[in-house]
Every structure is written in C-alpha cells, then in structure tokens.
Amino acid sequence: MKISDAFDVESIVKEAKKKIYGHFYGRAMFPKIDLPAARKAVNEYSKVLKEYPGQIADLKLYYVEVGTELTNDFGDVNERFYSSMVSMFNSFCEQIRNHPVYYKQFQERIHALQSACQHTGWGYGYAIDELACELEDSI
Fold it and tell me: What pTM was estimated for this model as a whole?
C-alpha cells in the first residue's frame, strides 16, 4: 500500500485508531482488552506509515491513552496489562527521541497521560512519569 497524499495518511490513522479502540473496548458493556490484537494493529499500521514517524508516534501514544482511559473507567486490570502500556509508551518515547521535532506536538498529551495515570496501581503511574521525564530531559 502506497500513501499518496495527506488525506490518505489521515484516513489511515483514523482507521488504525478505530481498530485499536475496538480491541480495548469492543462493543459490549464490558471491556474486551485484546492486547495482542491492539499491539498488532499498531505494528501493522506503523509499517504502512513508515514514511510518517509523527503518525506512528501518534498511534503508539493513542494505544497507551486508550488503555489508561479503560483502567480509569473500569478499575485496575493486571500486571500484564500495565506492562504492555509501559512497553508501548517506551516505544513511543524512542520514536520521539529518534524524531525530536515531534516532541512539542505531543507534549500536552504526554502531560495529560501522566495526570490520568498517577493513581493507578501496579506502579503504572510511576513508570509512565519516569519515562516521560526521561524523554523530556533527552529532548
């Protein structure tokens, strides 16, 4: 698949976010939480968007934002869940370190994420805060 213009990029990112969200929330009253499928969506769309590092970073951060929203909506999940969130946020941070021009674009969302997860269990809030501070210091 070759991306030919900005509209295609926007529609691809929108489609990816819809899939990611669906793998967390599904369609029922209770969350679906299919982490492997959500990660797979991020990875597959990252390959399609390989020429667009800002959009790849956006998808990775979105994954963590949706996971954080889910845990705030439904309560603590489990250690594997939070490990996945931290791992993806670390991947986001690496993406931004490799392309620091995008940092300002995500700064507000990073701070909102730090705030949203600060009272979450399993050391999740601490891990996200530490990675965010390391990222900020490295930029």
Answer: 0.93
